Amino acid sequence: AEPRLAKDTAVVARLLEVLVILWRSVQKALRQNEEAEKYTVAKFGSVLVKYFQALEDEQCMVPLIQLASFMPPAAVPTFRCLRAWFCSPSSNPSHLLPSPCPFLSPSCGVLSKLRRMEPGAPAARYSQLLDCVCSWGQAADVLDLITDWLTQALPKPGEKEDSSRKVRIQETVEAKPELALAYLEYLFDHKATREKVLALGERRLKRLHAALGSWRAVLYAHLSRSTADPRRPSAEAALGGFVYHSRLGAHLQHSVSFLHVQARTGAFL
């Protein structure tokens, strides 16, 4: 007979959350002890396969994904079948594939979930996904998504403004500048993810910095009008773009070229 505990998903979810807390408390020590880290990863990797298959409730999936984010993707074979859950519009874990399927990059399904997230979603819905992608070394993919959304949502000169612009990144989705800024806020506000983003190199960071800087014109247009233009991106998004343009510039101020950009920003103010 199936254990009664396995049927009490609320209790199991809380136990998994305790495991997440315990892992985080010893994470630094594990990194300093390679043998202990390999042993722990091997043990958890072998059982996570069964956990993902047996625990189909979404409240169990969140801590399971957190546990998985602590380990290298290759240590968790179940990631081969996670894309079905991540890409499901309803996020129903019953869509998990029960049988082996062709190898898929673990970040693929997570990024699809981030793309499909609705603007205004609470941070709890995407924070763990961002943590996972960054811990798997795929922060560049998230930054590209943010940059593309911010760029595609900008009004184009000589083009009829349309708030429902589309951006193509493997799949066609609506550009979501407010959500892009929410992702960026989370990435910048947490040390672990911020370090991953700032370590990506000048090319990607300059592209993001330029995209954020372009929102100054949108902000200026809002400030110059007495009434809001529904065809333009919101004033809140424009202000957020300006704020994070300055914040990213502060992180990059050691570069002479970025100091020059900051001087122009000061002149704009």
TrEMBL record:
This is (spotted green pufferfish) hypothetical protein. One of its GO terms (biological process) is mitotic sister chromatid segregation. It comes from Tetraodon nigroviridis (Spotted green pufferfish). One of its GO terms (cellular component) is nucleus.
